[in-house]
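Exercise 7b. Backbone tokens:
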């Protein structure tokens, strides 16, 4: 997350800009900078905010969901970026986005925390 966030602001910024959907109401470069900053904050939080790890897990999962339209845009508009220069490569990337969401929830214990909390509340009723 930290590396990806830093790369938003530096070495692959143009590639991130190229995949921002046309319908997004912000300027593409501005959105890339904001999402890069968010990714840096999330990455640092995954490392440092152990007490709030489950919350950061949910926020990271939400971030992966929020950026998914960019991946769809890259596929539908056939944008070559990040070495993804075929439809099959771009389609494969789409399949990995849900795995990133699941990774964020699993690796931080967010899903387990929610399910245990939900189970505890259902026994109170």
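Sequence design result:
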């Amino acid at each position: 997350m930290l590396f990806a966030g830093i790369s938003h602001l530096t070495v692959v910024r143009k590639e991130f800009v190229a995949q921002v959907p046309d319908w997004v109401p912000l300027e593409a470069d501005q959105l890339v900078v904001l999402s890069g900053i968010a990714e840096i904050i999330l990455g640092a939080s995954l490392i440092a905010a152990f007490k709030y790890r489950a919350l950061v897990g949910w926020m990271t999962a939400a971030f992966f969901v929020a950026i998914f339209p960019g991946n769809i845009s890259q596929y539908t508009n056939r944008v070559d970026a990040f070495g993804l220069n075929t439809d099959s490569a771009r389609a494969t990337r789409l399949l990995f986005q849900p795995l990133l969401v699941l990774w964020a929830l699993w690796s931080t214990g967010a899903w387990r925390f929610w399910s245990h909390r939900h189970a505890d509340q259902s026994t109170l009723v």
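Instructor comment: Residues 53-76 form the longest helix (24 residues). The chain has six helices and no strands.
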